[in-house]
Amino acid sequence: xxxxxxxxxxxxxxxxxxxxxxLKWLQTNYKCEVITFTADIGQGExxxxxxxxxxxxxxxxxxxxxxxxxxxxxxVFPMFRANALYEGEYLLGTSIARPLIAKRQIEIAREVGANxxxxxxxGKGNDQVRFELGYYALQPDIxxxxxxxxxxxxxxxxxxxxxxxxxxxxxxxxxxEAPFSVxxxxxxxxxxxxxxxxxxxxxxxxxxxxxxxxxxxxxQAEEIKIEFAGGDPVAINGIKxxxxxxxxxxxxxxxxxxxxxxxLVENRFVGMKSRGIYETPGGTxxxxxxxxxxxxxxxxxxxxxKDSLMPKYAELIYNGFWFSPEREMLQAAIDHSQAxxxxxxxxxxxxxxxxxxxxxxxVSLYSENLVTFEEGTADYNHSDxxxxxxxxxxxxxxxxxxRQKTK
Length: 407
Description:
- The protein folds into 3 domains: 8-178, Rossmann fold (3-Layer(aba) Sandwich); 182-298 and 337-360, Argininosuccinate synthetase, chain A, domain 2; 376-405, no CATH class.
- It is 40% helix and 19% strand.
- It contains 12 helices and 14 strands.
């Protein structure tokens, strides 16, 4: 039943079939004005047609915004400072995009006087949670409309029939059963569903769009240098560039050499397992380079503590808690650790592999003179190790002596 208290709603609008149907459904079911918001976060699609599609459905207020720089500088890079991986492998490409979209939707709702927001996420996935936790964290009294949890258009056929009944154009590749669903942004592209639902069947090559098959990558390896300042990459091969430009270039390098493919069965926040195919070429290179830079510049205690915090941090982002106080607390600690993460890393890219070629930093904690097996510095006395070992062995010795006495 329509909620007559809703006068204006801001819809996260891609211009595709699903959100075009949602747009009409909101107008019809809620009898409200719909404002569309389309974010360019590097998904690689031509979004110039989005305005025309929205206008054809009678939308008066249309927001189309280039958020690529904000996405990378304020979301991707802070996340990478934690070297975040969900369940040990996933670089969180979809997860990290949702809080930015939610934030901008709420800002637009305030600007236009809307009292509701809407999204196109399904009722089985994680994105409904991510969007709505973001909405409520930023605007506690906002009304949220999730059509996939309300309407009866629960099949592709019903969706297409509804679109045709309301003169909504249906892309040819959407007729019948789509082979799989895709989500993309500047950090990654993911594919899931349909032909990918059986985790025992490998993904066909046509599923991949950002990376070449590693076996078909160039036979000639390529070396690159990444410079870091305060934990973030700032230059490639000596050329300074903006965050979005830098990540785009890393994507080009990685895609060319078949780097960053991942076939993953993950645990969704809503409880079920799902299989996804991910391509994160630039992010995979960046993670390797960042950890190399930190290996030189982070103190052991700080580095190990940071690694122990990472799984919780990654889980918070995966589950949609970007705007939570605990994520912000962790971020403050992580950011504090990055002041000395400065220097340059050299990598070789070859047929899906990232090979370490060197790293250096003016604030490196690595001492060649201290670690050498030759005659080194007097700062380390070999005989000191005896007492160190005996103290650490004390509890082990006591436990074994007690065990022997009680035999």
